[in-house]
Amino acid sequence: MSDDITTMRLVIAGRVQGVGFRAFAVREARALGLKGWVRNCPDGTVEAVVSGADDKVKTFVGKCTRGPTSAQVAHIDMESVAPPSETDFVAKATL
After folding, report:
1. Is 27 a catalytic residue?
2. Which of 77, 22, 67, 12 is nearest to 43 (CA)?
3. Which member of 25, 26, 42, 57 lies 3.0 to 4.6 Å from 6 by CB, making a disulfide possible if both were Cys?
4. Is 40 tagged catalytic?
């Protein structure tokens, strides 16, 4: 396991709203012990900020490329950001 902490902002595009993507992201992130949040955006994307061990964040991103069964992920834009204030991984209200 990596000791390096990574924090990434993901903007997930495709058919990702109305398919349980936020619940999927919360479940997967918590299983990996990650911190952060996920929310729907008005433009139809899902935004997430995820923080934790580098290898676990990479695993989470990989899971998000597939998403839940009904999702169709077109692409994910990623950037490094400051760590979130959350001590767990939570779903936030739509922007």
Report:
1. no
2. 12
3. 57
4. yes
Tell me the whole-structure pTM to 2 decimals.
0.93
On whether the CB atoms of residues 34 and 52 are closer than 8 A, the answer is: yes
Name, in order, each residue with C-beta under 8 angstroms of 7's C-beta and a sequence gap of 6 or more. 36, 49, 50, 51, 57, 80, 81, 82, 83, 84
- Of the candidates 22, 27, 30, 66, the residue annotated as catalytic is 22
Residue 3 has what pLDDT?
63
Distances from the Cα of 5 to the Cαs of 30, 55, 59, 61, in angstroms? 16, 9, 13, 15
Distances (CA, A) of 69 to 63, 75, 76, 78: 11, 16, 17, 22
Selection from 71, 18, 52, 73 nearest residue 60 by Cα:
52
pLDDT band at 94 (very low <50, low <70, confident <90, very high): confident
